[in-house]
Amino acid sequence: MSYVIPSGLNAQKVQINTYARLYANTNSTRWLRTRAIPKTGQRLQMPFFDAERFARLLEKEGFSSVQAKTVINALDDVVDESTINVTNDLVSKADQEQTITRYKEDFSKLKSEIQIMERRDVEEVKSANERLKVEIEKLKKTLREELVRSQAGVRLDLNLDKGRIRDETIEQHNRLQQTDDKIENEIQALKRQMEGIKLQILQYMIGTITGAGTLILGYIHFFS
Known about the structure:
Layout: E1 2-4, E2 13-15, E3 30-31, E4 48-49, H1 51-60, H2 65-87, H3 93-223
């Protein structure tokens, strides 16, 4: 990895082959990020950085001690800013656990509310079903009463019609009987009239025969 030093630092190009040379576990090391404080107020556990060794490497490459210190401070500022930018979107374990706990509480409340709503909905459905059953029973009772009244009215009308038909039948029967009696009387009168006519015809025939016999006897007596 290569860095180009500005003109104020003699514009020297420094070659840094690997970062492994910059890290060590010695007592002479310091925190590279000394001013960046995360949201939790605790210092981040960054790797140890051997600033003195890095300064000697820079001086060996042609940097002065002031330039080396400036580069180290610049790197420190860059790491500080990068760390702050990264940690702005990070949360601590305590915050994470607190958030998870809050989410669990929210989920528990939501679950309780859903259960309460379900129970309330079930109770409302049961109440609605009970009301519907009561209304249906009332409707059935009303229909039965209407049916009974309708049947009673129909029976009454049928009985009235039967009585009227029976009366009309009796009246017609009486009229027919009267007509039959009248016809029978007329027939009897006609028979009597026919008998009288027959008797008159018989009397006329007897008189005619008697007169004819008398004439014949007189004629015979006259010519004898």
